[in-house]
Amino acid sequence: MLTPALIRYLLSSGMATATHIAVAYLGIEFLGLNPGLANGIAFLVANTASYALNTHWTFRQKPSLRSWQRFFGISLIGGGASALIAGAAALAGLHYLVGIGLVILLIPGLSFYLHRRYTWAAA
Q: What separation in angstroms does the CA of 46 have from each of 27, 50, 67, 95, 121?
């Protein structure tokens, strides 16, 4: 069920993804950074933007060190789960786009649930 908070979460996630792409692109194309380094920086910038958007807009909470730590931890869990899902799809002989599709279908809902229950439990 698409609740208003879930819709705001999905929009915030889309904005964070666009931020990641833009920062990585600029780092690689204009600053000559190694793609791994550029994506690492892009992850940190996008994660910070995502935390700010979700704290203030999606869950309507005040930022705190505790919620940021929880948010970052869940972000790392989501990244690991994404790698496992895409890797499992590849091991099963599926096209890599199927793996990406599974990640897109599964990870946002899992992340939203974990953030709602753990990062911003009172929201």
A: 14, 6, 16, 28, 22
Angle between helices 4-29 and 96-114 (to 10 degrees): 130
One-letter amino acid for residue 106 of the chain: L
Q: What is the pTM of this model?
A: 0.85
pLDDT digits (tens, 9 = 90+) for 71-105: 999 999 999 999 999 999 999 999 999 998 999 89
| Chain CA centroid to CA 91, Å | 24
CA distance 110 to 24: 25
d(CA 19, CA 82): 19
The angle formed by the CA atoms of residues 97, 102 and 104, to the nearest 5 degrees, is 95
